Amino acid sequence: MNKLKGADMKLNIAVLPGDGIGPEVTEQAIKALNAIALEFQHNIKFKYADVGAIAIDKTGNPLPEDTLDLCESCDAVLFGAIGDPKYDNDPSAKVRPEQGLLQLRKSLGLYANIRPVKAYDKLVDKSPLKSEIISGTDISIYRELTGGIYFGKKQISEDGNTASDLCEYSREEIERIAHLAFKAAQSRKNKVTLVDKANVLESSRLWRKVVTELAKEYTDVELDFMFVDNAAMQLILNPNQFDVILTENMFGDIISDEASVIGGSIGLLASASVGEKHALFEPIHGSYPQAKDKGIANPLASILSAAMLLEHFELYEEADLINRAVERSISLKITTPDLNPENDRVTTRLVGDFIEDFIQNPNDSNINFKNIHLGQSTII
Ligand code: IPM
Ligand code: MN
């Protein structure tokens, strides 16, 4: 391995493990990043802080000031997951863990959420969708993350019987993410599909107008429009028609969970949230509290989010090594039960160990890895 290339990158990462399975999957991503730092001689430092339900329990605030300060002072944030059932079933709760994540996105100005969706060849049979439909899928979803109905004015009438959430967008909010989506398409298959509901919503009509105007700057990219209800159907009927999907906050939230079915497990979907100054990397799965500390949580989405972090800092060789490690873990079936129900001995930590080892010894034989990591034999 060429250890001189891109050496000596110094990065301070704020780690927010959060709730549920967040801490255990984040731990595996950190192992991968530490192995990368060692191999490529980078200096990566991790600083931890609380967010979500655990932060509410300790401080009453899902995003304590210290946590935000830390995120603002670091080069990037590695985020686990937030959410706890004790808040989910209580509509009257005044503070909720999710507010921590939403405030963090807003405060750091993370307006673009990028969610890659890929059908791994070795996993096409794991998806409930037909393999001939999903095979070859490679989509990048660009979800607007700091506007729309999530952040518009919220109201509840005095009698508590009428409520509303405003969906508002400005030209500027649309333009900045649209530029990123078009640029991404230029290094992919040169196609952007704007997903909206322009037959009904005024805000969607603004999206169409602004994006159509902006497309003139990207003549090599084809721009397509699709209503979100149809897009929800097309995603599972013919996902190969998509390259970059550009959409507003709420539609992006919904269709990205739907799209995760293509990959065979939501435990595989990574994301990057970026703005002008800051960047945050998180798996798209939630806190999955039922799985906490059982060793069954899939760490690959968190590990792939760490790869997106490296890419963000233009450490492409490093990111590629993590992506290859993940592909190898999938092809050797060193994966958690969501992908590998026949073998429940492969735990969250074991997958992390494998990824770490692969990064340190990418050229070792597959058989050694498999034997060592499945605890069958240690003869090398
Ligand atoms: C996501 C999550 C969040 C969202 C929740 C936890 C607030 O579902 O990142 O997709 O709705 O954006
Ligand atoms: Mn979501």
Descriptive overview:
This protein is an alpha/beta fold and 380 residues long. It has 2 domains: 1-111 and 275-380, 3-Layer(aba) Sandwich (Isopropylmalate Dehydrogenase); 114-269, Isopropylmalate Dehydrogenase (3-Layer(aba) Sandwich), CATH 3.40.718.10. It has helices at 22-40, 53-59, 65-73, 85-88, 97-107, 131-134, 171-186, 202-215, 228-237, 249-259, 300-312, 316-331, 348-360, 366-373; strands at 10-18, 43-48, 76-81, 112-118, 138-144, 154-156, 163-165, 191-196, 222-227, 244-247, 270-274, 279-283. A 10-stranded mixed sheet has the order 2-1-3-12-11-4-5-10-8-9, with helices on both faces. Strands 6-7 form a two-stranded antiparallel ribbon. Helix 1 (22-40) packs parallel to helix 13 (348-360) and helix 12 (316-331) crosses helix 13. The chain starts with 9 loop residues before the first strand and ends in a 7-residue tail after the last helix. The protein binds 3-isopropylmalic acid and manganese (II) ion. Manganese (II) ion (MN) binds next to helix 10.
